Amino acid sequence: MPTYVAAIDQGTTSTRCIVFDRQGQIVSVAQKEHKQIYPQPGWVEHDPEEIWRNTLEVVALARIKGKLSVQDIAAIGITNQRETTVVWNRKTGKPYYNAIVWQDMRTADLVAQFSADGGQDRFRTQTGLPLATYFSGLKLKWLLDNVAGLREDAERGDALFGNMDTFVVWNLTGGPHGGLHLTDVTNASRTQLMNLRTLNWDDALLSDFTVPRAMLPQIRPSSEIYGNVTSEVLPGVPIAGILGDQQAALVGQTCFEAGQAKNTYGTGCFLLMNTGTELRESTYGLLTTVAYQFQNEPVRYALEGSVAITGALVQWLRDNLGIIKKSTDIETLARSVDDNGGAYFVPAFSGLYAPHWKADARGVIAGLTRFVTKGHLARAVLEATAYQTVDVVRAMEQDAGVSLKSLRVDGGMVVNSLLMQFQADVLNGPVVCPRMTETTALGAAYAAGLAVGYWQNLDDLRQNWGIAKTYEPDMDEAQRARLMRGWQKAIERSFGWEE
């Protein structure tokens, strides 16, 4: 009986392979960053071939570090940056163009064009999503309209589309030599081409977006055996789980009950609440999305609030302004002052996502006086993440008709105790950090392990979940109200900046 489950986590800035044991503990991990390509302002791309090479490398490295043989691995799960769009040739495996990353803004004109006829919520009933630069459908349309020869190849069935999960699985299972072209329901629900009720590609949407059906992957549950790895890194190991990264974190946090929610603090922030088998349409600017679907089970839905820029703001302070040397320095600098000194930072670098959905917003720093130091700025940077999260939680409570009892958190920023305490304070509720913060990779491992019987059921997974620390709110109501009022004023100043 194999002893471990592996997960490939293909993220926005790096690709990792993590191997887990039955208790959900890490046995081995390897990681490699890839280049962020910015051809012009607002455009963000990745090189898919670089990512594929990195994937092979981290899988091999994780095996070497853990001294693991192929026989030790029961299954492999995949989780990925969602919405990042890649098209490649079925016969050669060569991409037609760089992958267009979820943060990319080049489709802003298309958003305006489509919204002019039927408004921003034109496709929300079918897809749960507003028209925004964020999702894959418009990125794919842009590629079809702008890359020479692509549309002809797509109509012939020679050009394939996928998010990064699809590209990685296709390559792992043989690539041009019989690679499997598939995706799971969570990733498909982020393309704006899948109907949330039928869980199939929607002909009306394909026709509106002018996307040939022949290039789309098959949609499958998030947990089942799709096929075996043919690549030399893990030959014969079943690929048995696929989840978009935020849904993977929801599964990794074992939020299997309706009303349970998690917030992942990464490049952006992503708050998901499980709504069970009920599809809840949002009236407060959230997305309705697929949470997960396990083999032979009905699909589970979620409400999601996405914040585009959180951890990326810390990187910006580091790389663009040079105020800190490394990301972890932000907490020390922020702790050098007692409060934000009246300064607020709205990081609308690529517009605002939930619950505002303002593509014309841009970043502002408000409330500056001579008193404000770099310590106050560092604090404002951290606080921006907490305020944006509160905006999303309040919208979610309205939509779901329930108040959040506690917030389960994960992602790179949860090690920052100043931020986590401030989050509890402005949220006025407990913030719960689990022992295992690598919940995204863990969720993909769980999906794969369930499919092959490595874990028997959801109770096996729930037993692995443990609390490292709970932050309780410790701020008086008057101060909380004053801070949130300041934030509200600042965020309104960012609206309508772009013509």
TrEMBL record:
<dbReference type="GO" id="GO:0019563">
    <property type="term" value="P:glycerol catabolic process"/>
</dbReference>
<feature type="binding site">
    <location>
        <position position="12"/>
    </location>
    <ligand>
        <name>ATP</name>
    </ligand>
</feature>
<feature type="binding site">
    <location>
        <position position="134"/>
    </location>
    <ligand>
        <name>sn-glycerol 3-phosphate</name>
    </ligand>
</feature>
<dbReference type="Pfam" id="PF02782">
    <property type="entry name" value="FGGY_C"/>
</dbReference>
<feature type="binding site">
    <location>
        <position position="315"/>
    </location>
    <ligand>
        <name>ATP</name>
    </ligand>
</feature>
<feature type="binding site">
    <location>
        <position position="246"/>
    </location>
    <ligand>
        <name>glycerol</name>
    </ligand>
</feature>
<feature type="binding site">
    <location>
        <position position="134"/>
    </location>
    <ligand>
        <name>glycerol</name>
    </ligand>
</feature>
<feature type="binding site">
    <location>
        <position position="82"/>
    </location>
    <ligand>
        <name>sn-glycerol 3-phosphate</name>
    </ligand>
</feature>
<keyword id="KW-0808">Transferase</keyword>
<dbReference type="InterPro" id="IPR018485">
    <property type="entry name" value="FGGY_C"/>
</dbReference>
<feature type="domain" description="Carbohydrate kinase FGGY N-terminal">
    <location>
        <begin position="4"/>
        <end position="252"/>
    </location>
</feature>
<dbReference type="InterPro" id="IPR018484">
    <property type="entry name" value="FGGY_N"/>
</dbReference>
<dbReference type="InterPro" id="IPR005999">
    <property type="entry name" value="Glycerol_kin"/>
</dbReference>
<comment type="function">
    <text>Key enzyme in the regulation of glycerol uptake and metabolism. Catalyzes the phosphorylation of glycerol to yield sn-glycerol 3-phosphate.</text>
</comment>
<feature type="binding site">
    <location>
        <position position="82"/>
    </location>
    <ligand>
        <name>glycerol</name>
    </ligand>
</feature>
<protein>
    <recommendedName>
        <fullName>Glycerol kinase</fullName>
        <ecNumber>2.7.1.30</ecNumber>
    </recommendedName>
</protein>
<comment type="similarity">
    <text>Belongs to the FGGY kinase family.</text>
</comment>
<feature type="binding site">
    <location>
        <position position="311"/>
    </location>
    <ligand>
        <name>ADP</name>
    </ligand>
</feature>
<feature type="binding site">
    <location>
        <position position="245"/>
    </location>
    <ligand>
        <name>sn-glycerol 3-phosphate</name>
    </ligand>
</feature>
<feature type="binding site">
    <location>
        <position position="14"/>
    </location>
    <ligand>
        <name>ATP</name>
    </ligand>
</feature>
<keyword id="KW-0067">ATP-binding</keyword>
<feature type="binding site">
    <location>
        <position position="12"/>
    </location>
    <ligand>
        <name>sn-glycerol 3-phosphate</name>
    </ligand>
</feature>
<feature type="binding site">
    <location>
        <position position="412"/>
    </location>
    <ligand>
        <name>ADP</name>
    </ligand>
</feature>
<feature type="binding site">
    <location>
        <position position="412"/>
    </location>
    <ligand>
        <name>ATP</name>
    </ligand>
</feature>
<feature type="binding site">
    <location>
        <position position="83"/>
    </location>
    <ligand>
        <name>glycerol</name>
    </ligand>
</feature>
<dbReference type="GO" id="GO:0005524">
    <property type="term" value="F:ATP binding"/>
</dbReference>
<dbReference type="Pfam" id="PF00370">
    <property type="entry name" value="FGGY_N"/>
</dbReference>
<feature type="binding site">
    <location>
        <position position="311"/>
    </location>
    <ligand>
        <name>ATP</name>
    </ligand>
</feature>
<dbReference type="InterPro" id="IPR018483">
    <property type="entry name" value="Carb_kinase_FGGY_CS"/>
</dbReference>
<dbReference type="InterPro" id="IPR043129">
    <property type="entry name" value="ATPase_NBD"/>
</dbReference>
<feature type="domain" description="Carbohydrate kinase FGGY C-terminal">
    <location>
        <begin position="262"/>
        <end position="451"/>
    </location>
</feature>
<feature type="binding site">
    <location>
        <position position="12"/>
    </location>
    <ligand>
        <name>ADP</name>
    </ligand>
</feature>
<feature type="binding site">
    <location>
        <position position="416"/>
    </location>
    <ligand>
        <name>ADP</name>
    </ligand>
</feature>
<dbReference type="GO" id="GO:0004370">
    <property type="term" value="F:glycerol kinase activity"/>
</dbReference>
<feature type="binding site">
    <location>
        <position position="83"/>
    </location>
    <ligand>
        <name>sn-glycerol 3-phosphate</name>
    </ligand>
</feature>
<dbReference type="InterPro" id="IPR000577">
    <property type="entry name" value="Carb_kinase_FGGY"/>
</dbReference>
<dbReference type="GO" id="GO:0006072">
    <property type="term" value="P:glycerol-3-phosphate metabolic process"/>
</dbReference>
<keyword id="KW-0547">Nucleotide-binding</keyword>
<keyword id="KW-0418">Kinase</keyword>
<dbReference type="GO" id="GO:0005829">
    <property type="term" value="C:cytosol"/>
</dbReference>
<feature type="binding site">
    <location>
        <position position="267"/>
    </location>
    <ligand>
        <name>ADP</name>
    </ligand>
</feature>
<feature type="binding site">
    <location>
        <position position="16"/>
    </location>
    <ligand>
        <name>ADP</name>
    </ligand>
</feature>
